Amino acid sequence: MKQKGEKQESSEGSEGAKGKMTLPLALVALVSAFGSSFQYGYNVSVINSPAPYMQDFYNRTYLDRTGVPMDGGFQTLLWSLTVSMFPLGGLFGSLMVWPMVNNCGRKGTLLINNLFSIAAAILMGTSELAKTFEVIILSRVVMGIFAGLASNVVPMFLGEMSPKNLRGAIGVVPQLFITIGILAAQILGLSSILGNAKGWPVLLGLTGIPSLIQLLTLPFFPESPRYLLIQKGNEEQARRALQRLRGREDVEDEVQEMYQEDQSEKEEGQFSVLSLFTFRGLRWQLISIIVMMAGQQLSGVNAVFYYADRIFESAGVASSSIQYITVSIGAINVVMTLLAVFIVESLGRRILLLAGFLLCSASCAVLTLALNLQSTVSWMSYLSIVCVIAYIIGHAIGPSPIPAVMITEMFLQSSRPAAFMVGGSVHWLSNFTVGLVFLYMEAGLGPYSFLLFCAICVATVLYIFFVVPETKNKTFMEINRIMAKRNKVEVQESQELKASYPLGKQDEKKVLSSSQ
Q1: Which CATH number fits domain 274-491: 3.60.15.10, 1.20.1250.20, 2.40.50.1020, 3.30.300.30?
Q2: Consecutive 10-residue averages of pLDDT for the chain (516 residues)
Q3: Is the peptide bond before 225 cis (omega within 30 degrees of 0)?
Q4: Which end of the chain is more exposed for a tag (fewer CB within 10 A), N or C?
């Protein structure tokens, strides 16, 4: 019997090494990433190109209503609301993750979420006809809620469906689609396409189409097997879902592993966010995702994107061709994230995070220098373009895609929704903060504001280097054991789990009392 078990394990290992990407798994990753993550990226950058035409519309509408033109201060306020309501909505969306994924399931949450996006798309698309700019600001909040849910639920859904040897690669797919969304919005927003006085309502309304496609296709795919087995207690459905996703009848080892995970956390029940913060057994996992998510946003990625146009302008690029350069930077972002999909399983998560953050900090440091010297040294302006590109490459291989993968991997089923809620809230709060503070920072510090981003990148590198373990090709239980040592809680549970599966109630109590 022992032999059979060993054989099973090794065959799973070798099948794993071959990377059994089945058609259903690939399709569910594409459908959920295109229907949800894509729109997050699309809506991040969609209002950059048509901004002057939209502001003009705000102005005209106000003039029609009141008979007086809008004063500059009020217009700036309305525009910064239009921009910043999106990350604020994202924060609200993140706060809805925990109740929704536990009650409606992962797939159910994604389907319900599409209604937000379709409603917002219709409102934004018809705002000009209805002569109301308030609707645009409201729709940005609604789109934010959609993105807040999507940015957390898609990585969770795909991470729970993937075999352990593909979890990183499939976990990067949502981020890949975010970058494709950004690029799509940049291309469609070119002044020759939709980024003009006539086209902008269409540009804003297009975001409903991926949602419609997802609403029609996702119901044909299975729900997350872990959710079905561990939270719903439905082994039959979970087994069927796994067989479909793996393309083979024998999924015993994975079902067994889920039962193991289920046993080890039976007593704890579902974690709420509060219990997550007070539970010692998850202390370092929690600190790690907060540091990684804050580092991802506070490393200044949005500032670099905002700043890119101005950096190129000061480098003497003609203003008519700046939009094409922005598009090519968007394309570099897509290509590098695509590269991350292929290298995350061979190089591992740690290397990509460390290399990415290091490249970002170096780029920020050199960029500060280049921006300061470009009035005196002529070629410095080209160096600043190189820095922007290097920064985008660094962020795309590690800091952007990996943190969401790590949240999936560092937490077990019972604490994962609460962990995503915390990680997501940190992500959106930091995003919102950078959006608000950066304009003031730039006014006060000028190019030196990038030194602050450099320092944040370096701090994040140090934390990851000393604390965050490598998680590639490990089961959720194995990762849990590594972190248990770090949290100084009893690792005894793992031996017992291996030896006597399933765990007796007595042993469980012992394990839990030791980990409290």
Answers
A1: 1.20.1250.20
A2: 37 43 96 97 92 94 95 89 93 96 96 98 96 96 98 97 94 97 96 95 97 97 95 94 94 92 78 92 95 96 80 78 89 97 95 98 95 87 91 97 96 94 96 84 88 97 96 92 88 42 39 40
A3: no
A4: N
